[in-house]
UniProtKB/TrEMBL annotation, chains A, B:
Domain HTH tetR-type: 15-75
PANTHER family for the chain: HTH-TYPE TRANSCRIPTIONAL REGULATOR PKSA, HTH-TYPE TRANSCRIPTIONAL REGULATOR RUTR
PROSITE patterns linked: HTH_TETR_2
Protein name: Transcriptional regulator, TetR family
GO MF annotations in UniProt: DNA-binding transcription factor activity; transcription cis-regulatory region binding
Record's keyword annotation contains Translocase: no
Organism: Agreia pratensis
Key words, A-Z: DNA-binding, Repressor, Transcription, Transcription regulation
Source species, domain of life: Bacteria
Pfam families noted in UniProt: TetR_C_6, TetR_N
DNA-binding region: 38-57
Amino acid sequence: MTSPESARRSYESVQARRTQLLQAAVRVMGRIGVAAASTRAITAEAGLPHGSFHYCFGTKEKLLEELFRLEVNDVATQLASHLPTSGTLRERLELTLRAELERVKRDPDRQHVMLDLTATAHSTPALAELPGWEHDRYLQIVRENLVSSAGSHDRRAERLAVLVVAGMRGIVAAWLARGPQHDDAEAEAERSIHDLALALVLFEGEASADGS
Amino acid sequence: MTSPESARRSYESVQARRTQLLQAAVRVMGRIGVAAASTRAITAEAGLPHGSFHYCFGTKEKLLEELFRLEVNDVATQLASHLPTSGTLRERLELTLRAELERVKRDPDRQHVMLDLTATAHSTPALAELPGWEHDRYLQIVRENLVSSAGSHDRRAERLAVLVVAGMRGIVAAWLARGPQHDDAEAEAERSIHDLALALVLFEGEASADGS
DNA sequence: TCTTGATTTGGCCAGGTGGCCAAATCAGGA
DNA sequence: TCCTGATTTGGCCACCTGGCCAAATCAAGA
């Protein structure tokens, strides 16, 4: 009976459909950008009819918000799971920065989607608070690692964490700007990580001696 | 004869109309984002009829490319004009970073437009090379200043410049993520600049002693 | 004066957009 | 068994999008 063209889809929970759409969204956004990823483009990528979009999310803004939160959580999880707990401060800083760069290199389009989502959120009132939340998220993870692993004071770890996150962002942005196929980009990023880790270690040493 | 509603616009050169549209574009993009800035929204902001858009630019992509180049040139000019030529390395680094932060604080929407344009360019084949060109532009300016002003070797200045630009990007991004009205953002950015300048000076000192 | 070319303008087009809905379909408990 | 609520689906809507064009208007040189 179930001939191919008249085959009706088996029923799934709304949650299952939601995750399908979210995964399809990040794929298609990585290919054509956030702005060009229409509700129809997303449902088509997921192999679902257009009507399912409104049924599962109601509004495109809802999809964007949920996608942003999911992606940030995923990045935060990967970041947290690669934080080193032993070694010198310099080694730990290098490993942290390198792990983040490796994550971006593993799937550059995904990071492009994150940056595109952040830009979109900035000019969307309902999503305007998300970039701040995202930044605080990364900051907290790095700070707590520095406190628990280096045993430094909260105040000192905070200042160091801010520089780590800022440098991380800048190094990743530079690598992305050059493009994944650019050869020099990788070497420059590696050198930046090496140099930044050294600079931060020297800064930490200087600061722990002096009280500034 | 020239009754208000039938008053025809006085003729201007295409270039004049182009700059009108470009200025209107950056205004409206700062308000509603790059993606939402349609050709009609831009012409309306400029007080021109819709047809003038195609007459002046032909394609929206052309407007985007020209706008990107203009904005990058403007940022680069402001950056170059505020580069210090005297003082200790630490003072010069602080001034450079602070000048860039002040530029962003002077008109945050403009920086949002830049980031949004960069994200858009990444998923637009015709504009894909612009982000790399932008990054190299800033890098070159900072590097040349370090060479001429600090007299350091090209190789050393290059590595320092990369860290300066990366840190600059990260600090500005952090400030923007918090939002212009957030009080703590300003203090944190100032502290980051202070700390980063110190870290880079220590790095430079260490590197000039050792040969790594 | 006439003519040539640049500029202005409003309207037109095919196509895409987000959102919505009612009818069809199904799963599972009463 | 029937029935209630969840799910699916295709089509509909008003609106907006980028691009285009021909007629109207004007400036300035021949």
